[in-house]
Amino acid sequence: MSLLTTAVDPLAGYEHGESVFFSSSGGTLLTRGTRAVLGGDLGTLPERVTAALGPDEVAAGAVGFGGAAGLIVPEAASWSGPVGPGAPAGTSEPGNWRVRPVPHPDDYLKAVRRALEDMAAGRLDKVVLARTLELVSDGPLDPHALLRPLLGHGHCFAAPLPGGRALVGASPELLVSRRGRSVISNPLAGSAARSADPAEDRRRAEELSASAKDLHEHRLVVDAVAEALRPYCAELHVPAAPELTSTETMWHLSTRVTGVLRDPGVPVLALARALHPTPAVCGTPRQAAREAIEELEPFDRGFYTGMVGWTDATGDGEWAVAIRCAEIEERTLRLYAGAGIVTGSDPALELAETSAKFRTMLRALGVSGDALA
């Protein structure tokens, strides 16, 4: 594989359905061509990737919620620094799209109530329930136009999927990164929609930071992340309390967990395997939450709430949680958003939270979130 210099335009050379694009504060990767495809399951993926990569090579792409891998070893890859904010989205009237929510909002409310009943019965501590918006365009979709407004926002990505599809998004959540022996995971859990009014926006942030329900939800995730990483780390720092972080549309409770590997030979994908799926996108206990998701969500998540990123031949890499994303297939976009349900959750507020999370992708389309979600 050759390492290329980077063009001024970070998307120059991006080929929809073939290239992997991944950009964060740590830098930007763009792949070209495909030397090998690495499918299969996450269970054996770290070992298979290690065996497949030669010196200076990378593997990049997405892994689904259920663990199905969709990585490529490219023929060439270019690296550059972090990317600034993208071009503003154009305008797109809601009438340009045929929209179908899955499930219907009323059915989503029923699913949340069912989950709360399971919690009251002691079967669950937390479950993340998602919904989708299926948007069908009157004309051809331009992946570049969708991706460009997302540049500079969190972990911006585009990854090819089987069947000519692609996963595009801007995730605020880092599953795990590894640089040498240094490990970082930055789970987010506990959210509130932002407001255009500065005083109201600050009030919502302060309310989130003091919310017993959201702090409990967040602690469940952080404890699970620490438990998964601790066997691999000689040192592990877990802050006692979360911080507030924000995107254009959401406030989140955030905890940055840092560690030092005990064995420098452990690759980033082995850490990702131990972490995925965290309670931030699944729930706890993990198996009970998976079963609830399968029962209560009327669609296959596919690569939503999986992970997307890259790893190199040394085992270094960066993997974001695949949220705030859309799946592109011909003229159809499938947008995904979920909310963490714990004891004390209000079904109407959880529905509103998913609506707010849809706005990251809807803004990239230039579509009013209020009109669609």
TrEMBL record:
Pfam family name, one: Chorismate_bind
Q: What Enzyme Commission number(s) apply to this enzyme? A: 5.4.4.2
Broad EC category: isomerase
Q: Where is the composition biased (Basic and acidic residues)?
A: 197-208
Region entry Disordered, spans: 187-208
Under catalytic activity, the entry for this protein gives:
chorismate = isochorismate
InterPro entries (UniProt xref): ADC_synthase, Chorismate_C, IsoChor_synthase
Point out the coiled-coil segments of this chain.
none
- Show the GO MF annotations: isochorismate synthase activity
What is the recorded name of this protein? isochorismate synthase
